[in-house]
Design brief:
The chain has about 375 residues and is an alpha/beta fold. It has one domain: Aldolase class I (TIM Barrel, Alpha-Beta Barrel), CATH 3.20.20. The chain has 14 helices and ten strands. Helix 10 links the parallel strand 7 and strand 8. The longest helix has 26 residues. The radius of gyration is 19 Å and the shape is globular. The structure holds 5'-deoxyadenosine (5AD). 5'-deoxyadenosine binds next to loops.
Length: about 375
């Protein structure tokens, strides 16, 4: 028998400690993990919640991930790209409403026209959202996939300073099961290194509960975040999309919903306990599973929420998984709803703040493993 208290009181964690924590199912013991995670978050990051307005500006994609609804082979999806004015308008709304930061996310493209477009958008956002409250404009995070070092540098020099690129799983074997051959695990890892080298605050993450993934794989994921010196984490449950090659598993998944949801919350808490000073997002996929999923994420040690700013008309075309919430809401509805939801957990929203991950500046903590 492991003693959960003993494990939780340590400062360093082995793989078997992490597996042990992940396998806890007793409600009282889960609560201990949750409370420890919250305490560590409070000590290292504070209790405030930071917002990143999320603009899903295009669903064109050159990749074919077997789990994703906007994979290039899904011919049911109507493809779109927002124009510059639409994106800038959303960015200004974001700044005017005190969000502090914004995420520009899209399907992956690597053509010059695409990079030129994002570069121009980032420059414009940085100049047009400057104010007394935000002297350097909104904090801009990009989530636009695998690119060359040269392109990463261009995007960084344009003024974006954070980048999200999920590893999806740190197991090379599982990665190969989730993606076609031409999408390589090694390349994804290489891109994370290039992003660090460029100077970005780097975010990554995994999906939780997809076929063949074990608790050991998830423990390795957390160790991977540590090893790669990751600053920001976004993780969520895997959710079936019925227009993907993995949809024939949907019946199995219906039966596992509660288990996967719990596992996702435990992953958030344990990642917080092991990594301490990183930013962790309570992701929309949690909410897609259960209406209060994101609030639960905050209780388990997450400190970031990404309210959707994508214009209502195209939200339906950006469904990575089924049950995406807020499809027909307006940004302002999302804002009020988020504010109420966050306050319901006893937390406050940090207004007009970039909310950079402390880890990026805390060099001394990097070698304490
Ligand atoms: N279920 C859960 N998350 C998914 N993503 C893509 N498809 C799904 C799905 N079916 C996540 C991936 C990707 C992020 C943008 O969305 O982790 O990196």
């Amino acid at each position: 028998m492991y003693d959960i208290d003993n494990i939780l009181n340590q400062t360093g964690f082995t793989k078997s400690d992490i597996i042990e924590l992940l396998s806890v199912e007793d409600k009282g013991e889960i609560d201990k993990i949750r409370l420890r995670a919250y305490e560590i978050m409070k000590q290292n990051c504070g209790e405030e919640v930071y917002l990143r307005g999320l603009i899903e500006f295009s669903n064109y994609c050159i990749n074919d991930c077997y789990y994703c609804g906007i994979r290039k082979s899904n011919s049911n999806v109507e493809r779109y790209i927002l124009n510059k004015d639409e994106i800038i308008e959303s960015a200004k709304w974001c700044a005017d409403n005190g969000y502090g930061s914004l995420v520009l996310q899209s399907g992956e493209r690597t053509d010059d026209q695409f990079i030129d477009f994002i570069e121009d958008i980032v420059r414009t956002i940085k100049t047009e959202t400057r104010s007394q409250k935000l002297p350097e404009g909104l904090g801009v995070t990009l989530c636009v996939g695998e690119q060359t070092l040269e392109n990463y540098k261009r995007l960084y020099n344009a003024g974006s300073h954070r980048y999200l690129l999920r590893i999806e799983t740190s197991s090379e074997k599982l990665y190969a099961e989730l993606h076609p051959d031409y999408q390589s695990f090694q390349k994804r890892v290489e891109c994370l290194k290039l992003l660090k080298l460029t100077g970005f605050q780097v975010g990554t993450g995994v999906m939780i509960g997809f076929p063949n993934q074990t608790l050991e794989d998830l423990a390795n994921d957390i160790l991977f975040f540590k090893e790669m010196d990751i600053d920001m984490i976004g993780m969520g449950p895997y959710i079936v999309h019925n227009q993907t090659p993995m949809s024939d598993l949907s019946d199995i998944y219906k039966g596992r919903k509660q288990e996967i949801y719990q596992l996702a919350l435990k992953m958030i808490a344990i990642t917080r306990i092991v990594l301490k000073d990183v930013n962790i997002a309570a992701t929309t996929a949690l909410q897609a599973m259960y209406p209060m999923g994101r609030e639960a994420g905050l209780m388990y040690g997450a400190n970031i929420i990404m309210p959707l700013l994508t214009p209502t008309g195209v939200r339906e075309q950006y469904q990575l998984y089924e049950g995406k919430p807020c499809l027909d809401e307006f940004s302002s509805d999302c804002f009020e709803c988020i504010q109420r939801r966050i306050e319901s957990t006893g937390r406050t929203i940090a207004k007009d703040a970039w909310g950079d991950p402390k880890h990026f500046f805390n060099d001394h903590l990097r070698s304490d493993f």
